[in-house]
Specification:
The protein is 80% helix and 0% strand. It is mostly helical. α1 runs antiparallel to α3 (34-58) and α4 runs antiparallel to α5 (96-124). The termini are close together.
Length: 133
């Protein structure tokens, strides 16, 4: 697959965000599961990226629609994770639903970020003449 470089670049972007400490400032993930969310979420995002690139090669119209859906889904999941993080942090009592959405949302953010960022890099053709598929 010639688009593997875009997947690797998006994984490197997540690693850079994780190890630079930028993610600590946003309360995107709880400190206890921060490493797991970035690692496993990014690996899931790499698989989703490969599936998106395959879909773009097999059925370009469907692939473009799925890329848009992944991009939109990233922003929705990001909002859900951040709002529930804030709700959990500011709650006077333990709120199990907020922690559940914050936990699952933090994994989904990384899955969708890697897939959306890799698709964006491929669309912009950052490296060489690599095309879709």
């Amino acid at each position: 697959m010639r688009n593997i470089i875009y997947i690797i670049m998006s994984l490197l972007a997540v690693a850079g965000l994780h190890y630079s400490g930028i993610l600590n400032e946003f309360n995107l993930t709880h400190p206890i599961w921060r490493t797991n969310a970035t690692l496993y979420g990014s690996l899931g995002g790499a698989v989703l990226s490969a599936l998106l690139f395959w879909a773009c090669g097999a059925k370009p119209r469907l692939g473009r629609w799925l890329e848009g859906l992944v991009g939109l889904g990233f922003f929705v999941v990001l909002a859900v994770a951040l709002l529930n993080a804030r709700a959990f942090i500011e709650a006077e009592n333990y709120d199990p639903s907020a922690i559940w959405y914050w936990h699952k949302g933090s994994y989904a953010v990384f899955v969708l970020f890697v897939a959306a960022f890799a698709a964006l890099l491929a669309k912009l053709r950052i490296i060489g003449k690599g095309g879709r598929g």
